[in-house]
Automatic annotation (TrEMBL), chains A, B:
Any one Gene Ontology BP term: regulation of DNA-templated transcription
GO MF annotations in UniProt: DNA binding
Pfam family, one: HTH_IclR
Taxonomic classification: Bacteria, Bacillati, Actinomycetota, Actinomycetes, Jiangellales
Name of this protein: ROK family transcriptional regulator
Similarity comment: Belongs to the ROK (NagC/XylR) family.
Length: 421, 421
């Protein structure tokens, strides 16, 4: 009954229907045009025409021929083509990482490069990141993939619209135009570059492909040098008015004697971040505190000591776990999530943190039975932010498949050698 | 193109269009059928038929005749009829209150009855509340109004679907089937009864009719005996997985020496709730601590002393304001709201709290310029929860106008004398 006969509406409707068909294939799996018509309520001629357009865009392809249970003639199925990819990148305190996912959700590549980011500074780090991204794009291209979009996660406060990092306390960056800086280092009609807070991207990854995928109220809490948070509330990422929501690491509930990377005293992350754990469990000359040793190796050593019952290690973990529980109780009181997913080093030592945290939650949460909240360890490990970034890039394709046409024509951002200097 | 020709879809479409027309009149004001057609994209014959149905339901009526700027013939305008009303009720520690708003958003009546709720207990309080509601409904009926829905706000954790209060620490209630209990006390085919957390309803009231109405990211913080919170995130009330979101009063950031109404030690409300203020500013025999004196009178006296520069009063307000700022900083770090609206007694003494809170926020918030957050004093005063409740009842009418037909046939819940005993 609404006046949708104007040409502009027809274009809108066509794009909407393209997206609907593509998402049906993602969510329901390979199927015949007849079943897509049944799923979506579109008529079969329209579905055929939409499939043809999606195939031309390189987003779907013919699948197996279905020979059903005797009813009707065998049907040619359609499936999502994995050619188009999304790339997620992450800059953290001591590494940069890049992960490529194809449109089917399958991992194409993952590279993590140790890097002393605070020491290297903005320009050299972005040079290095551009080189890693370009290598991943080239590698994907060599295997027949096109990267349609790039999302960079940063442990700091990001204004997503222009892709500007306002402040990343623990890497010491302020006011960096990440998207522009990176675009300048990647030549050609590059893929769209988005920038976001790393914990927000990790929360999206947990919500779309983690163990608790689909849980509408989910809080992600990651421990590295800093402590980051991402909040999914009723299925939507909570961003806040300027995109700075979820800054859980700076809740003023830590020991006021410790100064945080942000310059303030007593932030939560000074009590439960990686530095706090290392301070508790080891002397300064203990190899587990040596930043030149890979973090996962050091965490494995701490886990080994805890499993052996080492007193100092267990006391340290208990102290950090109590602090974790205190902050988690605030998160439960405020967000009433179904699940808190622990990421970063919290997940690596999670089996030891869990009982202490749960005791603390029982003491501190006001809702009956912790408001139905469980604590879970992330299965995505240190790849969560990259995965979330790749997901965001792919999500743009599922939202407007026709837009991929432009990028797909020449989607490969090739590096400018000069830009790497 | 979608298959919307099935009978079920026609019914759905009709209801959807009825709602669209009614909301157009609410948001854009009285107007001709032709302008409604232009606003909504519906054709004029459809609009006329929808208007006829809305008029029959008692939701719209003829307004003035427009004699426009020379173009076209003069048009009969349509406007919202104020006959249908929503009723918001509130149970708090020391009062029950009822407020009736008509469909045009105008206040029909407001009654606040002092009551020692923790002492009276569940049954007597609900008897009293039912009597106040019935009186308000009768009063509205005498003036030609029909109450289509009732929403009860309670300072506690509410499961909204069946309308059950799980726990209200400061009134001492647990597991009360408020909706059923109230329905049993109100005879006849009563209006729909909903139950919700009082601060959630207040947040909705601020979002829809407060000074910062329409601000998409808004946190409401109210101080009474308890401290309650309601969070609007990107225009949606944050409820959490079981409806217990926004329990800000029980953040463990208070003095661990004080036991909270919830039984735990060191909850935020033990540092900034009304009891904390009174403890700081007055001796136990000071009349401002006397619960039998109206709260607004006592707050006026405290305000007077502060304005006169009384040392103990100012120090007390500063101590509470610092605690308020500490908790507010957590809310800003987590939700990144555009505005924090202070309600309850916080608003009454707000002019004295603001500078201390702002200093604290500047010290504690990690986002630049407090993430763009301002603090505002509620202009709705102690009526906020009732207003929010009435809004929720009316919102149901704007969402599905046709459903009012049933209630409008006999919407008046008349009291059963026996139920009042």
């Amino acid at each position: 009954m609404s006046d949708s006969s104007a040409p502009a509406d027809q274009v809108f409707l066509r794009r909407h229907n393209l997206a609907m068909v593509l998402r049906d294939l993602r969510d329901a799996g390979p199927r015949s045009r007849a079943r897509i018509a049944a799923d979506t309520g579109l008529n079969k001629a329209t579905v055929s025409s939409l499939i043809a357009e999606l195939a031309e865009l390189g987003l779907v392809r013919d699948g197996v021929v279905e020979r059903g249970g005797g009813v009707g003639r065998p049907g040619q199925t359609v499936e999502i083509d994995g050619r188009i990819c999304g790339l997620g990148a992450e800059v953290n305190v001591d590494y940069v990482a890049v992960l490529v996912l194809d449109l089917r959700g399958e991992e194409v590549s993952y590279v993590r490069t140790p890097l002393d980011v605070p020491r290297l500074g903005v320009d050299s780090t972005l040079d290095e990141l551009a080189a890693v991204i370009a290598a991943a794009v080239d590698d994907a291209a060599a295997r027949g993939h096109d990267v349609a979009g790039i999302t960079v996660g940063i442990p700091g406060m990001v204004e997503t619209a222009p892709g500007v990092l306002r402040h990343a306390p623990n890497v010491g960056w302020r006011e960096v135009r990440i998207a522009d800086e990176l675009a300048a280092r990647l030549a050609g009609p590059a893929a769209i570059i988005r920038v976001d807070n790393d914990a927000n991207l990790s929360a999206l990854a947990e919500y779309t492909m983690g163990t608790s995928a689909g849980t509408l109220d989910l809080v992600y809490v990651t421990g590295e040098t800093g402590v980051g948070g991402g909040v999914i509330s009723d299925g939507v990422l909570l961003r806040g008015t300027e995109g700075y929501g979820g800054e859980i690491g700076h809740m003023p509930i830590g020991d006021p004697a410790h100064r945080c990377g942000c310059g303030k005293l007593g932030c939560w992350e000074t009590s439960v971040g990686l530095a706090a754990l290392l301070r508790e469990v080891a002397d300064p000359d203990d190899p587990v505190t040596d930043p030149s040793v890979d973090l996962e190796v050091r965490l494995a050593e701490i886990r080994r000591r805890a499993a052996l019952g080492d007193g100092r290690t267990l006391r340290g973990i208990e102290a950090v776990g109590t602090g974790l529980g205190l902050g988690a109780a605030i998160l439960v009181n405020l967000f009433n999530p179904r699940v808190i997913v622990l990421g970063g080093y919290f997940a690596e030592l999670g089996e030891f943190f869990l009982p202490v945290m749960e005791t603390e939650l029982d003491k501190r949460v006001v809702a009956p039975a912790r408001g139905g909240c469980r604590i879970e360890l992330s299965s995505l490990g240190f790849t969560a932010a990259c995965r979330g970034g790749a997901h965001v890039a792919l999500d743009a394709v599922f939202t407007d498949p026709a837009a991929v046409g432009t990028a797909a024509a020449d989607p490969v951002p090739t590096p400018i050698p000069g830009g790497m200097a």
